[in-house]
Amino acid sequence: MKEEVVIGLEVHIQLMTKAKMFCHCSTDYIGKEPNTNTCPVCLGLPGSLPVLNKKVLEFAIRTALTLNCKINQTSRFHRKNYFYPDLPKAYQISQYDLPLGVGGYMEISLPESDEKRRIGITRVH
After folding, report:
1. 3-state secondary structure labels for all residues of 52-96
2. 91 - beta bridge partners?
3. Based on the structure, what is the number of domains in the chain?
4. Is residue 61 part of a domain?
5. Domain named Aspartyl/Glutamyl-tRNA(Gln) amidotransferase subunit B/E catalytic: which ranges (predicted)?
6. Host domain of residue 120
7. Would residue 106 count as lying in a domain?
């Protein structure tokens, strides 16, 4: 039986947006006092609802298309529960089963060879 090595990576990026991903709070934290760029959505207060930053959506679609992903017409966000001291609302908003982009790839050239390989991209979210 031939073995195949499969390596999975989870890559995070920080977008250069003026507002956070799910609220209108500023991302400019340099020189600011702690907790000044927060709002009821950031803190997960009852009754507060997140609103997706349009610029973030545009960046995510660009990234997914660059990675040859199919863009889902319907996308779903979930709450992932964590109990960390620096996460007062005890959850992160994420995607899994219906992410923005799926089934992509990145093609790379192997050094000192004409051979190309495809690296599969499961999802972009």
Report:
1. CCHHHHHHHHHHHHHCCCEECCCCCCEEEECCCCCCCCCEEEECC
2. 81
3. 1
4. yes
5. 5-125
6. 54-124
7. yes
